[in-house]
Amino acid sequence: MTEPSGWRSRRFGPLPRHASAYAAAVGLAAVVAAAAAVVGTTPTRTEWTSFALLLPLAALAPRFRVSVGRNHSFHTGPAFIVAGALVLPPALVVGLVVALHLPLWSRADQPPWYIQVFNLSNYTLSALGAWAVAAAVGPGDDATFALAGLLAAAVFVGVNHTLLAIMLRLGRGHTFRESGLFSATGLGIEFVLALLGVAVGAFTEFNPWLLPALIAPLALGHRSLSTIALLRESEERFRTMFESAPTATMLLGVDGSIKAVNRSLEALLGYTEDEFRGHPVGEHMHADDREDGAELYAELVRGDRDSYRREARFVTKDGRTVITHLAAALVRDADEKPDYVIAMAEDVTQEKQLEDQLRQSQKLEAIGRLAGGVSHDFNNMLTAIGGYTAFALEHADEGSLLRSDLDEIRKATERAALLTRQLLAFSRKQVLTPELLDLNEIVVELQTMLRPLIGEDIVLSMKLDPALGQIEADPGQLQQVVMNLVVNARDAMPAGGALSIETANADVVDELDEGSIAPGRYVTLTVRDAGEGIDEATLSQIFEPFFTTKDSDKGTGLGLSTVYGIVKQSGGFIAVESEVGVGSEFTMYLRRATDVRQPRPEATPSPVPVPVLQDADGKTVLVVEDEDVVRGLVRQVLEGVGFDVLVARNGEEAFALAEKHHIDVLLSDLMLPKLGGHEVADRLRSTRPELKVLYMSGYAESGLFSDGVLPPGTAFLEKPFTFSELTGKVQALLS
User: Which residues of the chain form CATH 1.10.287.130?
Assistant: First the structure.
């Protein structure tokens, strides 16, 4: 049973059998000793007077008891018992013991009867033991009296604490150390109280009527005991809070050495208190944080500041680094001089990791939006540059310097177009055409291309799961992912090494530690190399566009950013593990297809366009494009092959023209002010279901054609495009 008692609790319950036997034995011994003391005792009148004066003092003493620890309390009762052992016969000594315990039995919070009986028996045996020792020394001069008192006090305290400690060991399982009965403080205070009995006895022997004069010093003694008890209670309360605090806490000396730690710090860093004690706290801090920490601590212990807060990294016993918010406060002594420092460290490792991941994700998202917006505008310009360059080439003489210059412009335009496609891949704004496919087939098809690409000094191995599930993705984009990862692995092994490609099914039940891969059923592609590895600082930037650790002539910094964008736009995830000097491992997670549809048949290639369309005459194309230069170029190309062309800058102009003219083909940019290209097409088709639609863009709106399926009578033209691609798409729609 547990009974509340202030901020602590008192435990009462039935005694175990062996403890009950011990209590009975002590009680029987006390009865026998008391009976022997009473028989044949005839107190004198002086002894009765002394007894009468000591009796009320002994009875009042427990009323002013001071509880210390959890097993015993202090009061001035032992002083009167020892005094009685020096000046009274044994029968009256027993009477003092009974008078001492009677007030305890009237308390509202009195313990069970067997505890009261044991305490009475314990005091009886202790008091009679003290009397026996004093009687053995015998009456004599003052020195003899003092010696008898000293021995009586020692016997009383020793017997009392021993009997009680044994009971606590048998009844509650407390060791002698845990009981606190044999601590220096417990024994010392009890012995001092018992020694007061020598003075009380001397007063009684000299003139018992002077005993009331002892009330003042005894009250002062009670006050001292109360102060000690409050200090001890405060210490125990602090110790309890210190040990049970969920925050890792330590006490540091002014020299920076660790004086004490709590259990939370032991759990955080993995060291025991003995391993911490006496060592400088800097030994457990990350090397990069020690200098700043030492400067702040020096200011603290000099008294220049009272506290500080900082982020600090500690190294655990097993070598891990934990990030903490460290708060340190200076504690001063009574003279306002620095005494010690209390420091608390809150583990924020996981929060910092999540914060870094969120910041990295937001940074990549912002870069993606910027790249997508720039690519959209850049594609319009490249369309115009490439188109008008083609016009100029048609009129340039073969072998002329002008034609050579124009051809270089055309090549630069093609390289710039490739760059924008890579940026769009990272920003996840490409228009994908996903198919139901087997990832193993993609890898096998690329195998013949990969072997000469990686070189003879790299050993390529493949481990493809024969039971691999199907995925739905753009096969061309997946080929680009595999190629980029393999090229990246090759560059990480300039001296050769082992390169492996593995596929497998994976079921993610819970979110991984990074929090980036959602639960689900996946197909994984892992590219593993034994190269130089990637350090922690570089690892956080590898997917950023234009970030590269390669020489300027060996990489543009768009390989991994393209991989990242394609995987994300395909609804997947990518995880990286790397160790410097060991190698790197890139694992791509793609959702497993849940339906049982057959893979889509390969698209029939568009017919090769001809310079002039035979069926262009009489056909009207409505071009909706907000960029003037692109709109003019498209009009010039289509009119050049025989189409009637109407042009509009936005949806409103397109609707107005459609009301006045018959339109065979709508050629619209996807990104238009106010209404988008697909909204314009939907409104026009509501009254003209037979209308053919050709979308053009280098930038896919969110959610548009997310399943890769274009509506019937619809095609897509990616910017920048050539004349033949433009005319070929229109001819294919009309056919």
Answer: 353-427
Look at residue 502 and give its three-state secondary structure. Answer: strand
If one counts every other C-beta atom within 10 angstroms of the C-beta of residue 416, the result is 17
In the chain, ranges of CATH 3.30.565.10 domains: 435-591
The backbone torsions φ and ψ at residue 341, rounded to the nearest 5 degrees and listed phi first, read -125, 135
**Cα atoms in the Cβ-side hemisphere of radius 13 Å centred on 392:** 17
User: Could you report the per-residue pLDDT of 400-458, keeping only the tens digit for each?
Assistant: 788 788 888 888 887 777 666 655 554 444 555 677 888 898 888 888 777 777 878 88
Taking domain 620-734, whether its CATH number is 3.90.1150.10 is answered by no
H or E element at residue 579: strand 573-579
Beta strands in 656-734 (DSSP E): 665-669, 692-697, 714-718
Of all residues in the chain, what percent are helix, strand and coil, respectively (each to 5)? 55, 20, 30
245-347: CATH architecture = 2-Layer Sandwich (3.30)
* CATH class held by domain 353-427: mainly alpha
- Stated pTM of the model: 0.41
Specify whether the CB–CB gap between 269 and 284 falls below 8 A: yes
The H or E element spanning position 447 is: helix 439-454
CATH class, domain 435-591, is alpha beta
Which range has highest mean pLDDT (170-179, 180-189, 310-319, 559-568)?
310-319
Q: What is the pLDDT of residue 114?
A: 77
Q: For CATH 3.30.450.20, list the domain ranges present in the chain.
A: 245-347
DSSP H helical ranges for 335-400 = 349-395
How wide is the angle at C-alpha 716 spanned by C-alphas 714 and 718, nearest 5°? Answer: 170
pLDDT surpassing 70 at residue 227: no
Chain mean pLDDT for the chain: 78
Write out the two tokens for 545. Answer: 């566009």
User: What pLDDT is attached to residue 703?
Assistant: 44
Query: In the chain, which residues fall in CATH 3.40.50.2300?
Result: 620-734
Contact 557, 547 (CB under 8 A): yes
Q: In the Cβ-directed half-sphere of 517, how many Cα atoms lie within 13 Å?
A: 24
Q: Position of tokens 């308390």?
A: 107
At residue 710, the pLDDT reads 64
Residue 461 in this model has a pLDDT that exceeds 80:
yes
154, with CB counted inside 10 A (0-12, 13-18, 19+), is: middle
